[in-house]
Amino acid sequence: MARKTAAKAPRKRTNSTFRLKEVTTTCERSPSPRHPLTWRRLQQALAERVLAAKDKKKKETEKKFLAAAHKHLTRDTSEASDQLVALYQAANDEYQKFIISYASVDDEIRSLWDAIRAEFNNLAALAQKRGKINAASGQSCETAHIKAIGKVREACIETERIVNIVRPDKIEES
User: Fold this and answer.
1) Closest CA to 59 of 26, 1, 95, 16
2) Which of 53, 119, 149, 161 could form a disulfide with 16 if both were Cys (CB 3.0 to 4.6 A apart)?
């Protein structure tokens, strides 16, 4: 059975494709086992080109990888930093609201304490005034009471004298 082989398309030359003609033209003689020095130069030149091509390809892939990584990292960090900035702004807004609310509540509390202090001072002054009035009233009441007791005593003495005059024998018996 005969195999059908398709015609091979000519390979495109890339940076990694080696041009044997160029290498052989740089050598003095054509490569052959009879001339080991020339063959070694050819092998060395080919090896250097292969290594240079591999290094160049490796650097290109590393460069592409680093560019893609930089792109992804930039996107991810920009998203994270945008979220962080938004979160910071929201927290700052809430803190500002809290500070304003706290200040207004503190002002209300302070005004209530001022009102309580004023009322306390007013009630203390009234209580002091009432205490003085009560003390003065108590003094006048006590004086009037002593006078009334004195009058009652006089009335009792006078009543006893009148009773002694009207019925002298009744008092002596009791």
Assistant:
1) 16
2) 53
